[in-house]
Each structure stands twice: as structure tokens, then as C-alpha cells.
Amino acid sequence: MQWETVIGLEVHVQLATRSKIFSGASTAFGAEPNSQACAVDLGMPGVLPVLNEAAVAMAVQFGLGIHAEIPEVSVFDRKNYFYPDLPKGYQTSQMYHPIVGPGEVEITLDDGSTKAIRVHHAHLEEDAGKSLHETFSDGMGQAMTGIDLNRAGTPLLEIVSEPDMRSAKEAAAYLKAIHSIVTYLGISDGNMAEGSMRCDVNVSVRPKDQAAFGTRAEIKNVNSFRFVERAIAFEVERQIELLEDGGEVVQETRLYDPERDETRSMRTKEQANDYRYFPCPDLLPVVLDQAYVDHLRDNLPELPADKRARFQEEMGLSAYDAGVLSASREMAEFFEQVNDVCGDAKQAANWVQGELSGALNREGLPIQSSPVSARQLGELVARIIDDTINGKAAKQVFQALWNGESDSADAVIEAKGLKQVTDTGAIEAMIDQVIADSPAQVAQYRDAEPDKRGKMIGYFVGQVMKASRGTANPQQVNGLLKERLDALC
Ligand code: ADP
Ligand code: MG
């Protein structure tokens, strides 16, 4: 039987506010445990929450960024459950009237094609604290669980997709698209390793020709692009095997274990009514006036999908190049600066994706820490375009800039004497010398069938380039050599 995979993602994005969603406590990462949870975050009797306006603005910006409806009114609800990391006994969330309505996220697949994934809604909520199971003991070898409530009350935007994805690759591409939108907007640092973006992955399978969806399992808290793909791959295989053996998929919450590369059952899925949702009596409904939303809309930065389209349409880049160069805001800004300086988008794209990305990957550096600045790279590319240097010399210039030997491409070219030799007389003199020094190769060339000579010319080109220490113009060398050698035949 042919099976089809159906995936829907619930992505939790930690918003980059300085204080919590309902209190003034700091959200800074890495503080001493329990030093950043105040009475409001703990839900102590008598306290009242005050909504953080920055969190509202960020949620609305996200909504506008995915062309979503922004309802005039949204409402906070209490989601009641008991768990040690939630001392309030309820999580303040939005159930019935979320702040962001239906929208759409465009994903790019490996072959450069795009697909629209519908977003059902996005809502604001507070994060819970963190149970520390592994790092604790009572000092006498007895394992204990510690609790760090610093994260309690941290603002989260939960983005709920429609079940529109059909493969693990599409799910990873969707997560990457969300990551790039929120980091372009600057509403989250997107740091997955620190938990700033986590996702619950809903997976089901159905026979290829069946319209109804199968029963899904929800894999909780997957925190890397790679784990999303691996968890889905495992889960799809598990479900297909189960169904083909005549079994049934139960709707449940599962956990992905990266070490064993498998998902395990945690608990059967709660139904909404288990949570006894009701509107939070301590918080007023959020009412957004049109002018406020318009103001945010007018001030949105250019977002990845628009950038990608502009890179293709105005700069003539391929879909693939445009996708890579617009994936992160830092990458896009770097590329655009190189292009501004050198004036040739294709060359700028080649150098950023080729030589520069290669060097950054080798050193494990992000582009914002590149030792070669965008201005320096732009000037280097400009010297290739205006024929001051050839491609080979350009690599040497790049290496020198990377090593910090000089501050500019021009200074390196000057110091190392890399200026391309285009003077015909000078090149011909080198050619004469090489021919005089290579009687055996010349004889071979002369004796070869004319259609074999093309290949043999490489030897002479190499010698002349060597004689010029790589600075001769290779096209000129090729042309002049061919003339000279053919004249000898
Ligand atoms: P719940 O209220 O139980 O969380 P939702 O209807 O809100 O369920 O859906 C949660 C997520 O599960 C959404 O992202 C949705 O796209 C996805 N989803 C729903 N049904 C399926 C299914 N059959 N297969 C895969 N994903 C699904
Ligand atoms: Mg849900």
C-alpha cells in the first residue's frame, strides 16, 4: 500500500522582550536558578498580571509578516493543569480568541520550488518553569528533581499550522521559514539550542487515495531542525508498520529521544475540556485600534519571501541562490552590501556562497563574525570585474584579507604585485620563453592530431601562468598561445 504522511506543527517562539509577559521580571537567559521569577510569575495570592505591550506588538508584527488577519479583539484564557513547573496551577494562554488569525507561510524546498503552508492562528501565552531531572542529587547519591522557575512567565507566541505538510523535508522547511521570519522581524533570537524556538510535531499517515486524515500522534518539544526530520521519519515508519500489521494508531503524546533516535509514548492526549479553559478574570481583552496595526504594518522590514522574490526578479539570481542568500537576515544584508559595492549581483552571490561560506564553514563562524567584511569582499569582486586581477589572484587576495594581512583588496594587490598582466607584449615575451624552454612538448604538440591539441595547450598555459606568478590574463594567454603554437605547426 502507498502511504501519505500528514504533518501539522505547533511552533513555540520565545519573544525577545526584556521582561516577562505579565510581570517586570527579567527574561535574560542563563541566570542563577530562581533568581528571575517574581510573585506574579509564581501566581502568589493577591498579585495581578499586567500585559507587556512589547509582546503584543511582536505578535502583531508576526501576524502581519504572514499576511494574517489581525482580529480587533483577543482574549486571554486560563488553561488549568497541575504540574510542578507551573506553580500557578494554570497557564495564561489564548484559546478562543487568539491575537493572530489565519495566515500563510511560504516554504522553499531543496529544488528551489515553493509551497504555501496555512497557519491556523497564533496566540500569546506564558512559558512554564523547567524541571531539572538530570543535574540534581541530594549529595548522598539519591537522585532528585530540581525546579528552575526563571522561565515561568516568559512570553511565547504559539504558531499553529494547518496539517498542510506532506514530508519531513517540508516540515523542516516550514520551521526554517518561521525561524527566518521571526529573526528578520527581530521578535525572537531564534536560538533553538537555548529553547527560544521549540515545536510540537503532529504526524499521521493515510492511504494515498484516502481523503480523511489518519489518527495523529503529537511529538512534544522537538528543538532542532534535524530532530524534526528524524522524529518524523521514525514516527511515520512506526505508524505504517503498526497499520500494516492490522493495528491502530492511538492519539497520544510522544517524546523524541535523539540518543536512541526513536519516539516513545508519554501519555494519552488530553482533550481541550480536560483543561477547563475559561477567560482570565484578571486580564482585560486586548483591543487593537486600526491605527496601531497600520503603524506596525508600515514599519515592517522587508521579509524573507519578498527579499527572495526581489533577488530573483531584480537581480537575476536563480531560485536556489535567492533562497540561500535570503534565508537569514545577516546573510541577506551581507550579500546586499557586497552587491552595492561591486555592482554585480551574480558575482557577489558566487563569492558569498562560494569562497566566503566555505571559509566560514571551515572555521565554524557565523557570517556576522566574518573576518572579511562585506565592503572588503565587494571591493575585491569589483577588481575582478574591472579586470585588475584574475580569478586565481582573487583567491589569494581573499586569503590575505581573511588572515588580516591588509585592510583592503587594493592594498593586497599592491603589496603582492597581483595586478593582472594584460599587456600583450609582456605576455608574448613569456610565451616565447616557455616555448623556447619546452622543445619536447612543442614537438609533441606539432605531431598530435589537430583535435587533440586543444587538450595539450593546458601544459603551456600552466607554464606561462607560472612564469607570471599567476597574474597573466588567462584568456589572453590562451588565445595568444594557440596562435603562436599553431603557427609552428
Ligand atoms: P489540539 O487542539 O488537540 O491541539 P488541533 O486541532 O489544534 O489539536 O491541532 C493541533 C495541530 O495538529 C495542528 O498543527 C494541526 O495542523 C495538526 N493536526 C491536526 N490533525 C492532524 C492529523 N490528522 N495529522 C497530522 N497533523 C494534524
Ligand atoms: Mg494544540
TrEMBL record:
GO terms classed as biological process: glutaminyl-tRNAGln biosynthesis via transamidation; translation
UniProt keyword Protein biosynthesis present: yes
Limits of the Asn/Gln amidotransferase domain: 333-485
Keyword tags: ATP-binding, Ligase, Nucleotide-binding, Protein biosynthesis, Transferase
EC number(s) recorded for this UniProt protein: 6.3.5.-
GO terms for MF: ATP binding; glutaminyl-tRNA synthase (glutamine-hydrolyzing) activity; transferase activity
Family: Belongs to the GatB/GatE family. GatB subfamily.
HAMAP family reported in the protein's UniProt record: GatB (MF_00121)
Physiological role: Allows the formation of correctly charged Asn-tRNA(Asn) or Gln-tRNA(Gln) through the transamidation of misacylated Asp-tRNA(Asn) or Glu-tRNA(Gln) in organisms which lack either or both of asparaginyl-tRNA or glutaminyl-tRNA synthetases. The reaction takes place in the presence of glutamine and ATP through an activated phospho-Asp-tRNA(Asn) or phospho-Glu-tRNA(Gln).
Taxonomic lineage: Bacteria, Pseudomonadati, Pseudomonadota, Gammaproteobacteria, Oceanospirillales
Oligomer and partners: Heterotrimer of A, B and C subunits.
Record's keyword annotation contains RNA-binding: no
Catalytic activity as recorded in UniProt: L-glutamyl-tRNA(Gln) + L-glutamine + ATP + H2O = L-glutaminyl-tRNA(Gln) + L-glutamate + ADP + phosphate + H(+); L-aspartyl-tRNA(Asn) + L-glutamine + ATP + H2O = L-asparaginyl-tRNA(Asn) + L-glutamate + ADP + phosphate + 2 H(+)
EC class of the enzyme, as a word: ligase
Protein name: Aspartyl/glutamyl-tRNA(Asn/Gln) amidotransferase subunit B
